[in-house]
Amino acid sequence: MQVAIVYESLFGNTHQLAEAVAEGVREAEPAARVSCLAVEDAAPEEILGADLLVVGGPTQMLGMSTHMSRSMVLHADKTELSEPVADGGAPALSAEPGAEGPGLRAWFHELPKAPRGRQAAAFDSRLATALAGGAAHGIAHRLRRHGYEMVCDPEGFIVDAAEGPLQAGELDRAREWGAAMASRAAMYATEPTSWA
Which of 94, 97, 104, 141 is most exposed, with minimal Cβ within 10 Å? Predict the structure, then answer.
């Protein structure tokens, strides 16, 4: 099984989640060929051969990021980024390289329709409050429109603040989600049925 994990990340949280998901996939399906790609490096030819496409991004303004929301977040006053968090832990993460580049919305415009039978899953990083929304449902909707069959419900992983860090235990949960999703995708590949 070939698996492509594509992520958009501003402060490294979604990047960490993508890597944890990849670890989970490798644990569940050791023979799988797994690539973990930042959205700016995820050319269509890298994606179309994947049996399973997993896409994740940060939640901003209740959903998927936009050029405007990324700009607002990245150019806000970040003096607090250099200060340790209240419990004495590590400071929030700094912006990732390429964070100001095109995001998932632009990437989806360039993504061709999937060959029949290709599978997908969606995840996001988000604040714990329900009022924060989530990007994963928008990602899943776009994957379906591109012809992918979703193998599981969209998943959200919690950050303490917009810049991070991830809440304790979320990387372990991402590994578990990746393993469960990969197992389900492998089962689907041998016994295709509708997961709707």
Answer: 97
Asked, for residue 86, whether it belongs to a domain, the answer is no
DSSP, res 128: S
| Full domain range(s) for residue 64 | 2-79+91-190
pLDDT at 61 (0 to 100): 75
Q: Tell me the C-alpha distance between 41 and 6, whole Å.
A: 9
SS3 106: helix
Q: Is the peptide bond before 58 cis (omega within 30 degrees of 0)?
A: no
* CATH number of residue 68's parent domain: 3.40.50.360
Q: What is the CA radius of gyration of the chain?
A: 16
pLDDT digits (tens, 9 = 90+) for 73-130: 766 645 444 444 444 444 445 777 776 677 899 999 999 999 999 999 999 999 998 7
